[in-house]
Amino acid sequence: MATGFVELLEKRKFDVVATHFGKKEETIDVSQYREAYFQVDGSAVAGTVNVNFQTSVLMEEDHFSDVAGTALGFTSDGVQEMKIVPSTTQMLGRYLRWKIEVTGSSQATLRIHVLLR
Question: Which one of 3.30.43.10, 2.60.120.680, 3.40.50.720, 3.30.1510.10 gives the CATH number of domain 6-116?
């Protein structure tokens, strides 16, 4: 776990077989934080599963867009981490969520930790 961060959300077990967007209750208001740290634990991975992070200034579906340079790709079991710090190439709106995509008949079980500072 990253030091100096507050654990905001621990999402256990996503059985992913199709594209999944973070639900409204899983969307995070990051307006009072400087950076976000995600730890994604993938298990039972079959095929290719991608995790992207999205941001928006409004809590409306059509306003969310991918945060540049934040894609994590799983083709086997393992843990991957992503630290998002706002910059000129990685802008953040008020809200942050994840998007999980699978290729073909791929699937995985994912556990997502979200830490904010």
Answer: 2.60.120.680
